# Entry
Amino acid sequence: MIAQLFALKIVLKVTKGTAAGGFLTFHAPYSCQSDAFFGDLVNPSNKGFTMDDNTLENCSAQSLETWPYTSLAYKPEEKVKKLRVFQPWAPDWPETKRVRAWTKLVSYIKRNDVQVLMGTRISCFPDDDRQVWQWTKELISLIGHEHIMGLSIGNELELFDMFRKELRVDDACLHRLWDGGYAYSWFKEVVAEFDAMGYGHIPITSVFGARALSTKTSTFTETPVSRVNTLLSKLVSDYKERFVFAFNLYPYFDPKLKLDKNTRDQCNGALSYSLCWEPECNLPREISKAREKITNLTGNPNWRMWLTEVGWASEFAPTLLSAMKNCPRYSSPESLLTFYKGFLAWDLTISGASKSLKPPEMAFWHTMRDAPQLGTLEHFGLVKNCGDRECKTVPDPGMLAIPEPPPGFNPQDQDQAENAKDDASNDASGMQENLLQEQEEAEEEEVSDHAGGLEDNLLLFVQEM
# Structure
């Protein structure tokens, strides 16, 4: 393996040298093809892509270099400039593919002068964590100081209790992670080694999702199985402004959304609230909630914050457990591309007329290609498969419009858990009633499968919010 990494460094140095004026080389920038035009990308220096597992493992040479559906796709000098890599490699991926995948990835990063938010894991398996961190250090060394914008340690730890089967989590793990202090101690150990490599000036973070915001109090989530507020308080105390708050926020997975009244499969109200990007819409409001909790914790309304994932699925995601799973239009290419079109035009603003809030300084679109997540294929990519040259598309670009809400629709009903809870007893299409009904059916049939467990957890999640 040492010989392989040495050879990889030689290849990258030669590649870098030829690009600087040695041998004449030609590289056609990869981007998926489409006749659709969505407009220019707003704030290009503050937006980037996530690197999905499918692309990293199987076709890193086909990483998107330009933003699909924009004028930038026809200007080779305008490239994707930010990239979030969740982890450098996974222990269950074929080791024989790693060096080639890294070679192509590092070439892509250097050729396009990409800044990388590099990730490493916190899990229930310390040996795996150490192996992934070792790979992370190796890949960071290959990429080089000038291309590392930050280090992310851990991703959505607050969901470990909710996805026990998929993440192989048990009670002992949760105790070790939180009350046993493993999440905190491993974070500090990684940062110490990162600093020893000469990166003491680079921002660090641990990424959380919407469930970390679900508490009704002014703080982040704090339960025996998810002590997010305690962990964040320690990290802020230890690392001060070097620590950046980072969140994966998906209106697509919002558990409070409900079907249109008196329907079983229509969701125009939820879509009208969740596909838009104005301050009163679903995502900006959720980011505002994060901003307010950051301010409450730090006392600083301008503390740095990144939106590390946002996206939409073009097909039903098995992890979508809300009532939206019954609405065909919700998980569709039309909704994915409508949401992406809004992302391109979004200036990152989250402030409304009534309050001024510091927006996130960075936003990452998830993702390039459809990829497995928690053991099942999810369809969040702008491209379907490795090798595809075409972007996802729709027959008529005129279909890419946010639907009009039904008469009497009130976004507040979607956003407030109390309203959702009250409506569930009266509205047959309410999400909580659907979940309770499914739970009761499972109990009657003496079925204790994992999906039922997830829905119980989701119901608890909604009640917490």
Observations:
- DSSP finds 15 helices and twelve strands in the chain.
- Residues 368 and 381 are 5 Å apart (CA to CA).
- The chain has a mean pLDDT of 86.
- The chain has two domains: 36-405, 416-465.
